[in-house]
Write a structure and sequence with these properties.
Layout (H helix, E strand, L loop, with lengths): L1 H9 L4 H4 L5 H11 L31 H5 L2 H12 L3 E7 L2 E6 L20 H7 L17 H4 L12 H7 L2 H5 L1 E4 L2 H8 L4 H4 L4 E6 L22 H12 L6 E11 L8 E4 L3 E4 L18 E10 L1 H26 L23 E6 L1
Parallel strand pairs: 1-3, 3-4, 4-5, 5-8, 8-9
Antiparallel strand pairs: 1-2, 6-7
Length: 364
């Protein structure tokens, strides 16, 4: 029994493979994993955090502070920006906590799929790209063995210095940084640890998404090991949280379609993982939750795939055509004012100044 308990703690998701049906305790453990009652931060769509009211008490003028008295506000803001930085921040989930890794690049490329910091890739994306050194467990989305050594320890302790500094600098860490996410649940859990006032300050977001199956198409399986990271409810909840980012100005989406080998039949659908398909048509149901996002200044879509020589030409033609149409449609909708009504079709969308969708096909 002791050996069994250790096995459960190390890799509870393996119950899906070894005990798909059976006794009641097995179903109970599976239900707890599926509902994220263990091994994952809890998320509550109705949960909201209140901001710290720095004006609740009187603020001292601090006449003895040379920083506040002698430096003009413009110089102080420059110092705050230097302290917090403006690089990309990879959000990761490790041992049930939301952590981050500051990227060495100024911005997170949507075509790189976190190759700049490969330790931060989600386990299903690392498996698809062939990256190794992931821990022998599936407790959390991010399981690379070197990830604990790459975590950033920078904190917001400067904001706790005094209320005057808090009033001046509270928004800067959210307005300047680029938040990069490749696991939907990680971002949802992160958004519930931040008060709404700070969330509305986020201006740049990068989403690196690797679909296992097509959302909202009835293809998800509750017995799959990916059911807790790729499901219809989470897909809709994620885009509801993105919609709540009223200050968001730049959104970049990277869609990694996986590997294509041999005779790939790409018609209206795109072959995924050898036997799964995901349609890039603008009328698909999985696109609908994304249409709630408004008020963007910039939107980019990058579609990537690994393929052999026999499939490259077919994929370049079919995926490229569908990706450009989808990118133009999403850009037209998301860059409208927040009070604008959602269009029903793509007809009439003409904007030669818009950048087309990026298509990147690499050797498998």
């Amino acid at each position: 029994m002791r050996h069994f308990d250790a096995w459960i703690l190390r890799d509870p998701y393996s119950i899906f493979h070894y005990y798909s049906t059976g006794r009641r305790w097995q179903e109970s453990v599976r239900g707890m994993i599926q509902e994220r009652q263990i091994c994952s931060p809890q998320i509550d769509p109705t949960n909201t955090r209140s901001a710290v009211d720095a004006l609740a008490f009187s603020i001292s003028s601090q006449p003895e502070s040379n920083f506040l008295q002698r430096l003009p506000p413009e110089i102080r803001v420059m110092i705050y920006k230097y302290v917090f930085g403006d690089e990309a921040v990879h959000l990761v989930q490790l041992k049930g906590k939301i952590r981050h890794v500051r990227c060495s690049n100024l911005s997170s490329s949507i075509s790189s799929h976190r190759t700049c910091c490969h330790e931060t890739s989600a386990r299903w994306r690392a498996t698809a790209t062939g990256a190794g050194q992931h821990a022998d467990n599936m407790l959390y989305p991010h399981t690379h063995s070197l990830l604990p050594h790459k975590l950033s320890n920078s904190s917001l302790s400067l904001l706790r210095t005094c209320r005057a500094i808090y009033l001046e600098a509270a928004d800067i860490p959210y307005t300047d940084l680029v938040f990069d996410v490749d696991d939907l649940h990680t971002f949802v859990a992160f958004s519930q640890t931040v008060c709404p006032e700070r969330l509305q300050s986020i201006k740049r977001l990068t989403v690196q998404w690797t679909p296992i199956w097509q959302p909202l198409a009835g293809e998800d399986s509750k017995t799959s090991i990916y059911a807790h990271t790729h499901n219809d409810r989470l897909w809709c909840l994620f885009w509801a949280r993105v919609q709540a980012l009223t200050g968001l100005k730049e959104l970049r989406i990277s869609l990694d379609l996986g590997r294509f080998m041999g005779n790939a039949n790409a018609n209206a659908n795109v072959l995924l993982g050898g036997n799964k398909k995901i349609s890039l048509a603008t009328s698909e149901k999985w696109v609908t939750p994304m249409l709630s996002v408004r008020g963007l200044k910039e939107f980019d879509l990058c579609v990537t795939a690994k393929c052999d020589a026999s499939a490259k030409n077919i994929l370049a033609e079919e995926i490229g055509r569908d990706a450009m149409a989808l990118c133009a449609y999403l850009r037209e909708v998301m860059c409208k004012p927040r009070e604008a009504v959602m269009p029903c079709a793509l007809e009439g969308v003409e904007n030669p100044a818009c950048r087309p969708a990026q298509l990147l096909l690499t050797a498998a």
